[in-house]
Amino acid sequence: MVLWHWIVAGRVMMYPIAVASLIGLAVIIERLIVLRRSRIIVPELAATVDMLSTPRDLSAAYALCQSRPGPLANILRVGLDHAESDWTVIRDVLQETGRREATLLTRRLGVLDTVAAISPLMGLLGTVLGMIRIFAAVSSAGIGNPEALSGGISEAMVTTAAGLFVGIPALVAHNSLDARADRLIFDLETCASRLLDSLRRRQQASVNAAAQA
Question: Which of 6, 119, 144, 206 could form a disulfide with 167 if both were Cys (CB 3.0 to 4.6 A apart)?
Fold first, then answer.
C-alpha cells in the first residue's frame, strides 16, 4: 500500500523508473546465473590442460569438453582442433575464441550501467516536474492551496528518492558483476596460455622423437 502511494505521488515519472528497475533486476539475476565460476572454469577441464602428451590425452580432453560445454570448453576445443598446427596458428585461434567468449561474459552489463545512470536522471526530471507543478499552483491559486503545494512537493521528493533507490543498487551490481567477469576472463586467458604451452611442448617432444628415430 505504501509503495502504491509513492507511485501515485510520484505521478508519471514513476513508471519509467519502475520499468528501469525491472530491467536492471532481470539483468542482475541473469548475469548472476551466467557468471558462476563453477560454470565458467570447470575444474575437470582446467586440470586436463597440462596433461596432453599423447593422442589419447587429446581425445579424452576433447570428449570432456563436449560433455561439459561452456566458455572454457569452447576455448579448449578450438585449441585441440588445431593441435597439429603451428603454435602461432593455435595462439591466434585461441585469442579469437577468447575474445568472443569474453564478449559473451560481459554482455548486458552495458544495460545495467545505463539503468544506473538514467534512473537518478529520471528522478531528477520528476523533481523538476514537481517543482513546475508547485510554481503553477502558486501562480494560479497563491500560497493558500496547501493540497496543490503538497502534491507538487510529493512528486518532487518521491521521484528523486525512487531514482536513487534504483540507480545506487544498479551501480553497485554493475561494478560487482563487471569485476567478476574480469576475474573469469583472466582465468580463461590463463587456461588458454597453459593449453598453448602444453601443445607446444607436445609438438617439440614429437620433433625430438622424430629426430632421434
Answer: 119
